[in-house]
Write a structure and sequence with these properties.
Elements lengths: L2 E2 L4 E6 L2 E9 L6 E9 L2 H15 L8 H18 L5 H19 L9 H8 L4 H20 L28 H10 L6 H8 L5 H5 L6 E6 L2 E8 L2 E3 L2 E3 L9 E5 L3 H9 L17 H10 L17 H12 L5 H7 L6 H7 L4 H21 L10
Antiparallel strand pairs: 1-2, 2-3, 3-4, 5-6, 6-9, 7-8
């Protein structure tokens, strides 16, 4: 008869031979399972071996697979954060898509306590840098629940792994200020003109530029310049306009200098409801803007001859030009872009309004044009 203890059992098989049986998680990806092993020696030695196994695995608890942990804890947590407004629908959609596409097929059936770090590292190296970093972030979130509920001893994703170095194939094109002006001139009268002005000369993200209404604009005359300010209060998403932005700080005023401010007012002079109205009282869908942007670089199109870059790079070009060519204050630019800034003072106390933006922007453009005039170079934005 087997001799049972509080953990496992010992059965005598013959002279100086004993079988140990116990339930434990060996952290090999299979979770808690029944195990048996044979010990040669005395019963005292068999008890000692069983005590060693208990010391190593006595605290093991029933575990879950990565997919089960995600379904039981991670996804409900995202749904709760979405309901409380601390997470955006697009973020939930993106995370779920990456999980279903990359994480679940590879690790869904693995036990949360049995993921081998070497195998995990090898998997990350098969992904591009961006996807690898996002997958590791999602795994870290899922496995934190496993550690919290003592389903796994450690979070294997909570360390610094090496990524492949394979960048996603998106050109990092940044156009200089003069070229931005030429590109916007070439797009005059097209469906791309107004949103491109807001991105290239107003710091807007793509969805923000596509989702502006005529009522969002306010003219400010300062330092001899007519600046057009727009209050970003939402964005045009895949399913239409939404009253939220990428971050709370993205709800802000943006400012567009002359001559593009005058051109925007000319576009809106027909009484349209949206800056980029489709003629039927609706905003031109964001997908249409992206579709046309990819095609205007083709031979015979308005931007043929210019180096191609994603439409979102207009905003990066604006940031580069404002700092490198107009020499504007870095902290102010962060606020104009809808970033929180660095440090307590920048985040909580530095709150410039639309008139402050208009004042600083007009000063910077006037100084820039004066410098170019002294250098006998035609300043940008004076010949529209």
């Amino acid at each position: 008869m087997p001799q049972r203890s509080s953990w496992g059992s010992i059965t005598r098989l013959g002279k100086d031979r004993y079988r140990l049986r116990y339930v434990a998680d060996m952290h090999d990806g299979r979770g808690r399972m029944r195990h048996s092993e044979t010990v040669r020696g005395t019963r005292k030695e068999a008890r000692r071996v069983l005590s060693e196994r208990e010391a190593a695995h006595g605290r093991d608890v029933a575990t879950l697979t990565v997919a089960e942990c995600a379904e039981r804890f991670w996804m409900p947590d995202m749904a709760d954060r979405l309901a409380h407004g601390t997470m955006k629908p697009t973020t939930v959609e993106l995370y779920t898509q990456i999980y279903r596409t990359h994480v679940e097929p590879r690790w869904g059936a693995a036990m949360v306590s049995g993921i081998d770090p070497l195998e995990y590292q090898e998997w990350l190296l098969t992904l591009t840098d961006v996807i690898g970093a996002k997958c590791n972030m999602l795994m870290r979130q899922i496995l934190r629940f496993a550690v919290m509920y003592r389903l796994a001893p450690t979070n294997v994703a909570d360390v610094q792994y090496r990524l492949s170095g394979d960048r996603d194939r998106h050109p990092a094109t940044v156009w200089p200020l003069r070229e931005l002006a030429e590109m916007v001139d070439a797009l005059r009268g097209t469906v791309l003109e107004a949103p491109c002005i807001m991105m290239a000369f107003g710091s807007c993200r793509v969805g923000e530029a596509c989702g502006l209404r005529s009522s969002d604009f306010k003219g400010v005359d300062v330092n001899g310049m007519h600046v057009l300010c727009a209050h970003v209060q939402g964005q045009l998403a895949k399913d239409g306009w939404v009253d939220w932005t990428k971050t709370p700080h993205s709800m802000r005023w943006v400012a567009v200098p002359e001559p593009w401010s005058l051109r925007l007012e000319e576009i809106m002079s027909d009484g349209r409801g949206w800056l980029n109205d489709d003629g039927l009282g609706r905003a031109v869908p964001r997908a249409n803007i992206s579709w046309w942007w990819r095609r205007v670089f083709e031979p015979g199109r308005p931007l043929a001859g210019h180096e191609y870059g994603p439409i979102k790079n207009l905003r990066a070009s604006w940031r580069t030009a404002m700092r490198a060519e107009l020499r504007m204050d870095r902290d102010l630019l962060e606020k104009m872009m809808g970033h929180s800034g660095n440090g307590v003072g920048e985040i909580h106390y530095f709150r410039p309004d639309e008139e402050a933006f208009a004042d600083e922007l007009s000063r910077a453009w006037n100084a820039y044009r004066e410098r170019k005039s002294r250098e006998h170079l035609g300043p940008v934005g004076t010949n529209r």
